[in-house]
Sequence to fold (308 residues):
Amino acid sequence: MAANQDATPILAAEAQPELTQAEIDQRVFDLYDEYCHGRIDRREFLARAAAVTAGGLAMAQALLPRYARAQTVSSTDQRIKTQYVTYPSPGGTSGTMRGYLVQPSGAGPFPAVLVIHENRGLNPYIEDVARRAAAEGFLALAPDGLSPVGGYPGNDDDGRRLQAGLDQGKLRTDMVNSARFLKAHALSTGKLGVTGFCWGGGVANFLAVTLGPDLAAGVPFYGAAAETARVKEIKAPLLIHYAENDERINAMWPAFEAALNAAGVPHEMHKYPGTQHGFHNNSTPRYREASAKLAWERTIAFFKEHLS
Fold:
């Protein structure tokens, strides 16, 4: 039996074609969204993209992440100090968690920000986001929800499969425990914010409900809305980022907005024109530089306002 029976060729990362967002058909973006969220596998994504339009395979290949691009703050940057830490997580997947802790240089204490990954574990992009937050003066922790099953495996396909196979309730408990660990950390002021992306955006909303007054600010990026009946439990102000072309997530906004208004939760929402789900992730052509930078500037300003 051949080692790889996949009839659709998969190019090495370094051989992926260089295409801009404007050169990629929206139908391929839509298929990539299905692939990223585990509704189709890699083989089906590539095959369907090849069938939907001329050059579709090249477009699909261009969307696969290149994490070397994602680094904007080096782990050796003099403004920060990085380390991996382990901590208890009672009721979670294994009772123990591991995360990437990044502190600003100096003695501290520092306001704290939890950075929650997408649906595939702690990949290099999310580690870089933690470093970006620390470079702005925050003690940042990026937990790896896959740490109880060996950690992020080095590629998103395996990471996605591993994360989908976990007990989702226990995985959320691991994120709650991560938030509490960071809030109580010796280098933390006790003022806690949370941000997250895609799956992590939904968890940021979940944590806003679950932590109540223990959370000082929440910034979900294109995340699933909090459970409507529990929105009244949110005590932290929210800064909510959406992509324009993100039908599944955006469809949740009207009910979420109504519940936030009814509960008197301070919030602001920004929807970024011409963007795709994942526009902040600078490892693929879904990245929209101007919108990503504006969203991040707003995020940092929001945290500085509410965590000081």
